[in-house]
Every structure is written in structure tokens, then in C-alpha cells.
Amino acid sequence: MSPLKRLIYSTIGGKTLVGLTGLALSLFVLTHMAGNMLIFVGPEAYNKYGHALTSNPLIYVAEAGLVAVFLIHVVKAAFLTKKNWSARSQKYAVSASGDKATSQIQKTLWAQGLVILVFVVLHLLTFKYGNYYEVTYGDESIRDLFRLIVEIFNQPIYVIGYSIALIILGLHLSHGVSSAFQTLGLNHPKYTPLIKSFSLFYAVVVAAGFLSQPIYVYFFHKGA
After folding, report:
1. What 3-state class would DSSP assign to 125?
2. Among residues 65, 129, 145, 214, which one has the fewest Cβ atoms lying within 10 Å of its Cβ?
3. Residue 137 pairs with which residues in a beta bridge?
4. Model's pTM, two decimal places?
5. How far apart are CA 42 and CA 40, in angstroms?
6. Are the C-beta atoms of 206 and 29 separated by less than 8 Å?
7. From the DSSP assignment, how many helices (H) and strands (E) are in the chain?
8. Where are the extended beta strands (E) located within 82-148?
9. What is the C-alpha radius of gyration for the chain, rounded to an integer number of angstroms?
């Protein structure tokens, strides 16, 4: 096995890949959330933004890269979790406390990841491959994604499920971002508290931004 393969399959290499792919996915969800904010501008701005993304020829390259990053993150994280469980054949006699204690968020990262994975699949089926409506602006007819959003987010069950999934995503980010920086070597008593605070702030911004969309549609949006 080559040195590169040994590094990739090692625990350190696996954690590095999870960290790098996690940061990449964190940046993606931030940009995706920011684009969603156009719903507050109006249907035309929202639909034209969606059309600009999907009509760009590079979208296929971007989507392929995103899928690859997502799969690497999921597979390597699952591998590390399984390896960690295998190493704990017996529970510690005394649980760690203080700064060394493992939080419930850390303990349930694998479960959070599973929920997010299911959510991503359902999200794609609902919006990317969901009902196709058209709207015309000038001489151009494009997909009326705004209409689909309003249709979906007027369903209480979907709003509740979406909200739960986004809260879990926020929890995942709150630990994942700081953990990724730590894995990549940014671990210092002086800066670690700042990184953890930034990670929490980042998670709140992303989750709140996504949650604002169904809340706005369900409780405040009037009209088509």
C-alpha cells in the first residue's frame, strides 16, 4: 500500500478527510442558506436565482463534486465511528468530567449524521425532483420554485419535520466546525474558546436562516 493510501486509511488521515469535507459542506450550507434569503425579496428574485444556478453548465460539475465530498464525509465518519466503538469493548469505570467530558452532541454525532442524510435525500426528492411549475418573466419561462416552496411549507407535517432536521443540522455544525479546525491543527488554549464560540455562532446563523423560510411561508406569507 502506498504512503498516501496508508494515510487515507489511517485514523489521522480519516479524521483529516472528515474535517476537510465537513468544512466544505459547512460553507455550502451557508451559501445555500444565503440564497434562500431571496424568498424575502419576492418570487421573481427567488425564481431567477434558482434558474441562474440550474441553467449554468457548470452545475453538473459542482453537483458531482458536492456529492463526492458528501459521500467521503459520510463514509469516513461512519468508518471512524465504527472503529471507535470497536475500541471500546468495555466502558470506562469512571466517566470523564470537566473539559474532558464528552457532550451529548458529541456522543450523538453519528445519529445526527444519519438524520441529516435522510433529510438530504427527502429534500432533493421534494424540491429538486418535485412538482414542476412554470412562470414567465418577459419572454422567458422558468421553473416556479417559489410556488413549490409555498405549496410544501403550507403543510404542517413538513414544516415540523424540516424544522427538526435543521435544528439537528445546527447541533451538528456547532460541534463539527470547531472539531474540524482542531483536527487540522488549530488547537491552542488561547484560540480554542474563540473557535468554539465561532462554531456555535456559525451553527445558529445557518440553522436560523434555513428555519426562517418555512416559518415565513407558513405563518406570514400571503398570496401566491
Report:
1. helix
2. 129
3. 140
4. 0.86
5. 6
6. yes
7. 9, 2
8. 134-137, 140-143
9. 20
